[in-house]
Write a structure and sequence with these properties.
The chain is of the alpha/beta class and about 260 residues long. Helices cover about 40% and strands about 20% of the residues. The chain folds into 2 domains: about 40 residues, no CATH class; about 200 residues, Rossmann fold. The strands form 2 sheets. The chain has a 7-stranded mixed beta sheet, with helices on both faces. Strands 1-2-3 form a 3-stranded antiparallel beta sheet, with helices on one face. About 15% of the residues have low confidence.
């Protein structure tokens, strides 16, 4: 019995796909989804090779108590939180600069706010903005269980509406919200950032898509375009010094000169 042409081509394509995956190649498939295969492991393309990520995470001390519980909760309920290596970088950075006031855009379940609170002195206060009511309720419950409840203030609403209402200066500002709005957030935060202050932006390489057109998924083109514009802007802005660090999903640090 003759095999229909479409079925034949499908079988040929699948055999090529299987062979290429076996050899550990990058395959560009339907809807431009990249599949990476290495020693039988499949995942969407990230910034670093698997073995680098795995090694770094293997030497970072495991969290205990409420932070570990939040990591488990986030994984179980598919809630994005900062990667472990980014959390470790955040801890070290905050211990170096010793901020007194921190602003966060994107609270989620309160994980990163608690990371920051546990890495700063007792007189450091954190203001964090979250647009989703359910996340605000959950984050508040998580924060209330800790010793940092009096140092973290959650504000519910859209960041672009709340930021213009804030007063005073912040020594450290952390972006982990809508990636396509980073440039808008940045411009709204310029007046809030103290001299010698730092803005840290997470997920700026967006699974490598920002760095390579070959990795861009069709439905993510707008976000990628906006992130590229954002990174170019902060790296060429007079009065500021920026760098991009390829850990986690990509981190950008912007320093405000005196």
């Amino acid at each position: 019995m003759a095999i229909p042409f479409q079925e034949l081509m499908k079988n040929i394509w699948m055999q090529i796909l299987i062979n290429d995956i076996y050899r550990g190649k990058l395959i560009r498939g339907i809807d431009h989804v990249l599949i990476y295969a290495k020693e039988g492991k499949f995942r969407l393309s990230h910034i670093n090779e698997d073995y680098i990520e795995e090694y770094i995470r293997s030497i970072i001390p495991e969290h205990e108590g409420y932070l570990y519980e939040l990591e488990v909760y986030a994984e179980k309920h598919h809630i994005p939180i900062i990667e472990r290596e980014v959390a470790q970088m955040l801890k070290v950075l905050l211990k170096i600069i010793r901020p007194k006031r921190i602003l966060e855009v994107g609270t989620a379940i309160g994980y990163s706010a608690l990371i920051m609170a546990s890495s700063t002195d007792g007189d450091c206060n954190i203001t964090t903005i979250e647009r989703r009511k359910d996340m605000v309720v959950l984050a508040q419950e998580n924060i209330d269980k800790t010793e940092y409840r009096d140092r973290i203030n959650i504000i519910q609403g859209e960041a672009e509406e709340i930021l213009p209402t804030l007063t005073g200066k912040f020594d450290f500002i952390f972006f982990d919200a809508a990636k396509g709005q980073y440039l808008e957030f940045f411009n709204l935060c310029i007046g809030l950032l103290a001299k010698r202050g730092i803005i840290m932006s997470d997920n700026v390489l967006f699974k490598g898509m920002v760095a390579s057109d070959d990795l861009v998924i069709r439905r993510k083109k707008t976000i990628v375009k906006r992130l590229r514009k954002y990174l170019k802007y902060i790296n060429n802005l007079e009065g500021y010094e920026s760098c991009i660090i390829p850990i986690g999903d990509g981190v950008a640090l912007t320093y405000k000169k005196e």
